Amino acid sequence: MKLVNKQAVGMKELIATLVVSGILLIVGIVVFAKVKDAMPTVYGDANDTVNSVEGIAYDSFELATVALIVLAAAVIIGILIRAFGA
After folding, report:
1. What is the pTM of this model?
2. How many angstroms separate the CA atoms of 84 and 80, rounded?
3. Is 17 part of a structural domain of the chain?
4. What totals of helices (H) and strands (E) does the chain contain, helices first?
5. Which of 4, 66, 78, 86 has a Cα-to-Cα distance from 36 of 20 to 30 A?
């Protein structure tokens, strides 16, 4: 694949960004799970708060995977626009 001089991000940079971001996402999930397991057991209203925070954190990790897909799509669309002269 021939890269255009005006092109800001190429396929190599995209792949490197996705790999690094994916590894950081996995490390973040593992660290969060370890911290959650190390937390003391709480009861009552505090337990509801802890469960709420856990749910929000896990939801954010799910959204982070969508962000990786959007990043890849944006770079690929940019490459296609520059390659076909828009």
Report:
1. 0.58
2. 6
3. yes
4. 2, 0
5. 66
pLDDT, greater one: 28 or 83: 28
Q: Is residue 57 part of a domain?
A: yes
Q: What is the pLDDT of residues 20-64, one digit of tens each?
A: 888 888 888 888 888 877 777 777 777 788 788 888 888 888 888
In a domain, residue 5? The reply is no
Q: Which domain holds residue 49?
A: 11-83
> Domain tally for the chain?
1
Residue 4 falls inside a structural domain: no
Cα–Cα dist 69/77, whole Å: 12
pLDDT digits (tens, 9 = 90+) for 55-68: 888 888 888 888 88
Cα 74 to Cα 27: distance, rounded to the nearest angstrom: 25
